[in-house]
Design a protein that fits this description.
This protein has 127 residues and is mainly alpha-helical. It contains 5 helices and 2 strands. The chain has a two-stranded parallel sheet.
Length: 127
């Protein structure tokens, strides 16, 4: 499928999901700049489509770098995907559950947000 059609499908599917589940916030990972130029361009286009839909649906957006997410979950900003997956399973008591690396990445973002949100709330109360 050509890129414009894939972007349109992405936007349509994300809009359908937000209408179905009514989230209040979306948590995104900032792009990893080690990608090749073509991959980075396609990723930027997809992020643009995604962010436009999320903002149009009224969602707040939080973004964290891959190192921030890895550090929040594992205590090591350079943890590999398997380490992140293992720690996500521990955080969520999913010891016997099998999750994919993509699912563990998404859950790691959520865990990072929850930890940062708590810290941000504490800091704002001190002000």
């Amino acid at each position: 499928m050509p890129v414009p059609e894939r972007l349109a499908r992405l936007a349509t599917e994300i809009e359908a999901l937000t209408k179905r589940w009514h989230p209040e916030i979306a948590v995104l990972e900032t792009p990893f700049l080690g990608l090749n130029a073509r991959s980075l361009v396609v990723l930027a286009q997809a992020r643009g489509a995604l962010i436009a839909v999320l903002v149009n649906q009224g969602l707040a957006i939080a973004e964290y770098s891959p190192a921030e997410v890895k550090n929040a979950v594992s205590g090591n900003g350079r943890a590999d995907k398997e380490q992140v997956k293992h720690m996500v399973r521990l955080h969520l008591s999913l010891e016997k559950e099998s999750i994919s690396l993509d699912a563990s990445d998404a859950l790691a973002l959520a865990i990072c947000y929850v930890q940062r949100y708590r810290m941000d709330e504490l800091v704002s109360r001190q002000s």
